[in-house]
Write a structure and sequence with these properties.
Number of strands of chain A: 4
Radius of gyration of chain A: 18 Å
Oligomer: homodimer
Mean pLDDT of chain A: 97
Strand order of the largest sheet of chain A: 2-1-3-4
Structural class of chain A: alpha+beta
Largest interface: A-B, 43 and 43 residues
Helix content of chain A: 40-55%
Chain lengths: ~240, ~240
Amino acid sequence: MRYELYYWPSIQGRGEFVRLALEEAGADYLDVARLPHGTAAMMSFLEGKSTDRAPFAPPFLRAGKLVIGQTANILMWLAPRHGLVPKSEAARIWANQLQLTIADWLVEAHDTHHPLGAAFYYEDQKPESLRRAANFTGSRLPKFLGYFERLLAREKGGWILGRTLSYVDLSLFQMAAGLRYAFPRAMERLRPKHPRLAALHDRVASRTRIAAYLGSKRRIAFNEHGIFRHYPELDA
Amino acid sequence: MRYELYYWPSIQGRGEFVRLALEEAGADYLDVARLPHGTAAMMSFLEGKSTDRAPFAPPFLRAGKLVIGQTANILMWLAPRHGLVPKSEAARIWANQLQLTIADWLVEAHDTHHPLGAAFYYEDQKPESLRRAANFTGSRLPKFLGYFERLLAREKGGWILGRTLSYVDLSLFQMAAGLRYAFPRAMERLRPKHPRLAALHDRVASRTRIAAYLGSKRRIAFNEHGIFRHYPELDA
């Protein structure tokens, strides 16, 4: 089956978590909004013109008759079809739980530059961003990193669910890569405390399909329109 | 099976979405943190002392050997065991998608009084709250309400998934109740545009088990420590 991924065409954003899973799986997919007229096609779904079950926001994935929204939901549906999660129910519930925790972490990373919401430009909420970012790099970031590092320390295989790679590892790679881009100083300072997460990042980056993807034009570069933004003043 | 729910004992918060599902199901459960020594038991799980799969934060549910965290994940696991979601995979994926959209909405409701994060008191982020809340009541709230109202208009049975109540309806009830508590003026003003959501709220509230629950001491009253807080100055 050829999947259709719908997401904003100029940023990694939440769509990137799905792209990484599709790429690691070697799945056949179209990144629709990056094609001619793709954004209009995406809007048609959001407006309920192309489906009865309109998603609230991108990303969403079309798989035959199914139109699936919400990043963690898409990944949960895709993963067992492509060997990206163990078969047992307990493992899948745990994977979904971790993915939702990553989603919470991602919101907090985003909110460092948009504490007052997406309605205002960063330039219109800079003092607020400085306060929120200081709390993020000083308190929340170490807490999230520490949580996943401790989980990795309990597992033997170096992956977050144990001996085999899952979609949650791909998402942890993306978090590490994005946070290193946005907060290089804070991440470098915290790095000695999280050797397992750093190793996981490198292991994911060197997988054959992921390495090919990261070197291709399909991988959009980090930029200051996405979730992870490098504003040096926020990286205390 | 007797479930054990772990959540902060003095607020509705995210735990309430799980409580409503357990109550509607007539499930046997303990609200552990509200019992003597319950908060210490909860902390033991969060610190990884009582489980290898420590949740990042409450709520979490213990069901036999399983310890399940993340509200939407708990509900997705509970619902098929208690007839709170249709059996088809497509319906369950859709229900989870809607629940995750409600979770996003909930974060935005919370952030009206904590735009700079949970590290600072409301009193220390009041001007920022005023800006964020004005955008919430003026733009985001109507957008979320309109989304769910449109979905309800497409269904025949008055429930969000059609003819039978699901856990997503219970969560929509909670959103409506909480938003009416926090933003009575904004919600009253918007009410004529969302008759189906208002009807759904009343229908859930009048269900036998839910009505009994809402009238009992098990239902914690809304208060200014929870997610939905009534600060009149934020209700423009």
